[in-house]
Design a protein that fits this description.
about 260 residues, about 75% helix, 11 helices, mainly alpha
Length: about 260
């Protein structure tokens, strides 16, 4: 039977889209609710956005999240770039190496978080921002690796061969030929790693030390006292930042084609 003739296909698709996006739309709408009770609408207001900007706890959590995401995404992208370049050449165990590299994508995050906590405690690593950067870098590597690897596979070897024919050495060829062609994949990988680190809760919750609370951990702590428009406003800002970054990466990638 043709998929177009499958009964209720359109209705099921609309129901799935509604399930995915209606709660997000409701959350954004209620972030403008002037009433302190998040589910009782009175009138529109920007007061909660103003309050999260002057709340020192939220500003500290936002700064920690930003520093963590930038450091982890940068380190993960550099390591993923090196791994993608290494995997370009055939060698014994390449398939196994790629499987290990991408393992964080399929491993349960709670298991990875607990295992990382046990490792750091057993070797005496102090919990805090440094421990979170190391852990986030590890699980962000596959998110940066996959776009870089895909972009690298799409680059014809003839460009590098032409550079070698013009007596360019390996480093000059990489800097002037390979890297400019690879930039869209690198930007996409960095963006994915940044957003993944910014939204992570479990690993940050286990490894956070005093004064290193991130925004997802702050939201979890605050939501136990009830959902407020303040929580909705923080969530809306995180969502908008994530969407803008992914959109920017997409358009920059298209511009460089």
């Amino acid at each position: 039977m043709s998929p177009k003739r499958f009964p209720f296909t359109r209705e099921i698709s609309l129901a799935v889209l509604a399930y995915l996006y209606v709660p997000v739309i409701v959350l954004i709408a209620y972030s403008f609710n002037a009433n302190r009770t998040a589910t009782v609408w009175t009138h529109a207001s920007l007061d909660w956005y103003g309050r999260i900007l002057i709340n020192p706890s939220i500003r500290a959590a936002a700064w920690n999240s930003l520093v963590l995401a930038v450091c982890a995404a940068t380190a993960a992208t550099i390591l993923a770039l090196m791994a993608a370049l290494a995997m370009r050449r055939a060698f014994l165990g390449r398939g196994a190496s790629e499987t290990v590299l991408n393992a964080p994508l399929i491993l349960p995050e709670i298991v990875v978080a607990v295992a990382t906590l046990l490792l750091f405690v057993s070797v005496g690593v102090q919990l805090g921002l440094g421990a979170m950067i190391a852990a986030h870098t590890a699980f962000c590597i596959p998110f940066a690796y996959l776009p870089i690897r895909a972009r690298l596979e799409g680059i014809s070897a003839s460009y590098e061969e032409a550079a070698f024919d013009l007596y360019a050495n390996r480093f000059r060829t990489f800097r002037r030929v390979t890297m400019p062609l690879l930039w869209p994949g690198v930007m996409a990988g960095f963006t994915l790693a940044f957003v993944t680190s910014l939204d992570d809760f479990l690993t940050s919750f286990f490894l956070a030390g005093p004064g290193t609370t991130t925004l997802p951990v702050y939201i979890f702590s605050a939501i136990r006292a009830g959902i407020t428009p303040e929580i909705n406003a923080i969530s809306a800002v995180m969502l908008i930042v994530s969407v803008l970054l992914v959109s920017l990466s997409f358009f920059l990638g298209r511009l460089r084609r």
